[in-house]
Amino acid sequence: MEIERKYLVEKLPENYKDFPSRELEQGYLCTDPVVRIRRADDTFTLTYKGRGLMVREEYNLPLTKEAYHHLRAKADGIIIHKIRYNIPYKEKYTIELDEFLDELTPLILAEVEFDTKEEAEAFVPPDWFGEDVTFSHKYHNSALSKTPV
After folding, report:
1. pLDDT tens sequence across 60-80
2. How sure is the predictor about 147, in pLDDT bands with cuts at 50, 70 and 90?
3. Which residues are catalytic?
4. CB pairs under 8 A, 24+ apart, for 132-137?
5. Which of 66, 75, 95, 145 gives 20 to 30 Å between its CA and that of 89?
């Protein structure tokens, strides 16, 4: 189960590039249900995500590099390319700050994952977060692959 909140970011924290980062590339084979392939540096994954906005099922399976490239050619829409920074927050959380590249520049989103729905609902974001877009389907990466904002 994935439980997360998502926010637009208009003002980046000064030191965000000091945190660990990965280059991500992801494509969508289907958007209802979501079937995604992802390359994170040299790791390749196939993901299934169920319906929902803040809370939804998620299953990840490893892929080989060859399988990833075979499926990448079959992806619908654009291939999303972004840099993800992992920023610790309040000892318990990690902010996943996504700086989108290529067709989605200058979009920047921040996601935070939680153990429970109640914890997600009680979350108070840092002051550099912008609008809460958790419940806006248009900011799901699967939707961005079809209709960039």
Report:
1. 999 999 999 999 999 999 999
2. confident
3. 28
4. 132/5, 132/6, 132/7, 133/6, 133/7, 133/8, 133/109, 134/4, 134/5, 134/6, 134/7, 134/53, 134/54, 135/53, 135/54, 136/53, 137/53
5. 145
